[in-house]
Amino acid sequence: MDPTAHTVRDRLAYDASTGVFRWRVRPTSNIPAGTRAGCSNTSGWLIVIFGVVHRARRLAWIYTHGKIPEGMEVRVLNRDESDLRLCNLELSTVRQRMERHPKHHNNKIGAQGVCKQTLGQHVRFRAKLCREGRVIHTSSHPTLEEAIAARAEALRKYEANR
């Protein structure tokens, strides 16, 4: 459960231009007020408030905007979890975050949304664009370059119509 904006603002000072949190009050006897709050870990910057571990990106949003709406999460735009400037944070749903996710590590083609189909001796490349749980575009092409271009064009048209 997230803390309230009042609790976050009472305990921490947040500089939106640098993304750094500092303690307003002494959290424990060995940490003075004014020192940088939290610690870095593989899943991002973490801050403990009243014995509960919180992601700093969520606290930054709560500090500046208040409550995070139900079903939403705070996403770091440049994927650098230590860069918590307010201009680098946005609200998104899990589905929106997954749509913007980079290609998977085991993608052998090297392009997101394109796969290779072998039908007997014929090799085709299929371009596919999915958004909001629906297939928006699918097409089959003789070359990888054509399939990548077709998916990019479908994405451009989809984004232009939103």
From TrEMBL:
SUPFAM superfamilies: His-Me finger endonucleases. InterPro entries: His-Me_finger_sf (IPR044925), HNH_nuc (IPR003615). Gene3D superfamilies: 3.90.75.20. GO terms for molecular function: endonuclease activity. This is HNH endonuclease. Keywords: Endonuclease, Hydrolase, Nuclease. It comes from the Bacteria. The lineage of its organism: Bacteria, Pseudomonadati, Pseudomonadota, Alphaproteobacteria, Hyphomicrobiales. Residues 56-97 form the HNH nuclease domain.
